Amino acid sequence: MASTPSHPPEAGPAWRIAGFRYYPLRFYYNRHFGRPVWKVSIDASFGCPNRDGTLGTLGCVFCDPAAFSPSRRFAAEPLARQIDRGLERIRRRRPDINRAIAYFQPGTNTYAPVARLRAVYEEALAHPAVVGLAVGTRPDCLGDDVLDLLADVSRRTWLGVEIGLQSIHDRSLAWMRRGHGYNAFVDAVRRGHARGLRLGAHVILGLPGETRDDMLATADALVELGIASVKLHQLYAVRDTPLAQAVAAGEVRLLDLDEFVACAVEFLEHLGPDCVIDRLLGDAPAEYLIGPDWCRDKPRALAAIENELARRDTWQGRSRATGSAGA
Ligand code: SF4
Question: Which among 151, 154, 132, 133 is positioned nearest to 143, based on CA atoms?
Fold first, then answer.
């Protein structure tokens, strides 16, 4: 999906020389594994402290796990069956894909006793097509015992830990009802990096009250912390969530496509060139989505980002390279 500059540079990061304007996950996988690899979402039925009453019962304002993850929309099945099904779906479009990263996506996938976590991770790794794990979690569910387990897993296979951050600004985290502050993320990252873990962050652009500079400050902070990958989302509302109610009441305005594209392009410019972009925008099934309407056409939205990168003749890390990061 990445655009090709008219004149790819002869020097610079490999992804630029290959003609990309940002460092896409597929390019990283191809180089790391020497073959195409796909992420397959799986659901091990982990809960979330923001829903089970530990921190709250309502969850984050935007969250509906079934809307956000394809694996939670299907009845719980053994992990091997989920992986097989996921690969079958992918092969309808990409018959060449026969290796997978098992992606523990819905819920908080480090929120269980270490013995159970170990058993579940090993179950996924036992699938012959699985070449690594991606584990999605919250920053406050990464205790030292869990990090020790993840470090042990990472010594034997590829492992990416994806931490839901969304924003470095505590007022935004409070508005989202995340139940943790930015300091929890910084603490988890420092302890994770001390164990050599590959850590990624999920970020939302377009949060109410966040200015352009606020969003770019999040990008700059991720660079300072040495975050290895970023998954970008636009703020979008799915049915039966507090966010959907706030949008319907006119209390929250969602970015239009042009606004999101401008934010995403500048965000990419502020990231470092070594940060892998797991995803540029999120999507939800049509029957769940309340808005913005442009989310219904993901290819068009991705093309709009590509086109804007090309129109500006810019690329990931450019602000940092030219010394204007943080401006
Ligand atoms: S932490 Fe994740 S799973 Fe839990 S309520 Fe928030 S978005 Fe949903």
Answer: 151
Q: Which two tokens stand for residue 92?
A: 């309808």
**How far is the centre of ligand 1, averaged over its atoms, from the C-alpha of 203 (Å)?**
13
The answer on pLDDT for 5 being more than 90 is no
Which residue's alpha carbon is nearest to atom 5 within ligand 1? 59
Burial class of residue 286 (count of CB atoms within 10 Å of its CB; 0-12, 13-18, 19+): exposed
- Prediction pTM value: 0.93
The protein residue with its alpha carbon nearest to ligand 1, atom 3, reads: 107
d(CA 137, CA 120): 15
- The verdict on the CB of residue 160 being under 6 Å from ligand 1 is no
Q: What are the residue boundaries of the structural domains of the chain, listed by start?
A: 14-321
Alpha helices in 54-181 (DSSP H): 65-68, 79-93, 114-125, 144-154, 170-176
Is 317 near ligand 1, meaning CB less than 6 Å away? no
Residues 127, 325: Cα–Cα separation, whole Å: 43
Strand-strand pairing, 198-205 and 229-234: parallel
Which long-range contacts (C-beta less than 8 Å, at least 24 apart) are formed by 9-16?
12/273, 13/273, 13/274, 13/317, 15/273, 16/273, 16/315
Q: pLDDT value at position 285?
A: 86
User: For ligand 1, is residue 110 a contact (CB within 6 Å)?
Assistant: no
**Do residues 288 and 238 touch, judged by C-beta distance below 8 A?**
yes
Give per-residue pLDDT as tens, 164-212: 999 999 999 999 999 999 999 999 999 999 999 999 999 999 999 999 9
Q: Ligand 1 centre and the CA of 219: distance in Å? A: 22
14-321 maps to which CATH number?
3.20.20
Whether 60 is in the pocket of ligand 1, judged by its Cβ within 6 Å, is yes
The pLDDT value given to residue 6: 52
Nearest CA residue ID for atom 2, ligand 1: 107
Atom of ligand 1 lying closest to residue 178 CA: 6
